[in-house]
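REQUEST FORM: STRUCTURE PREDICTION
Request ID: SP-0412
Submitted by: Lab K.M.
Chain count: 1
Length (residues): 116
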Amino acid sequence: MTSSAIKIAEKQLVAYNNHDLDLFCSCFSEDVEVQLLLNDEALFCGQSALRAMYAERFSHPKLHAKLLNRIAVGRVVVDEEEVTGLDNGTSSLHVLAIYEVEQGLICKVRFERATG
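STATUS: Completed
RESULT:
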């Protein structure tokens, strides 16, 4: 499973950096859950919320996530990234993203982030 989990994590990262909304969304399950890591606060659930969130995010032409480190065990992939180009006055975000993969799709994402 580790190999397929890495492939889907990489596919969504490439789609993110290409601002390819359709390809990006195709990496996630219909009922994907996205939450903050430390307090389990739900950010959003489901494909339609994912599409709306990332349609706005991809409107930033300089948006880019640089992969700093990746660890994969079984169906879990943990990426450490530096995200730039958000146009919100922040130079960058240091992000930890934990992807849980089931049946070849990301079903849950948990984030921790700090401004750079």
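NOTES: The mean pLDDT is 93.
Reviewed by: T.R.
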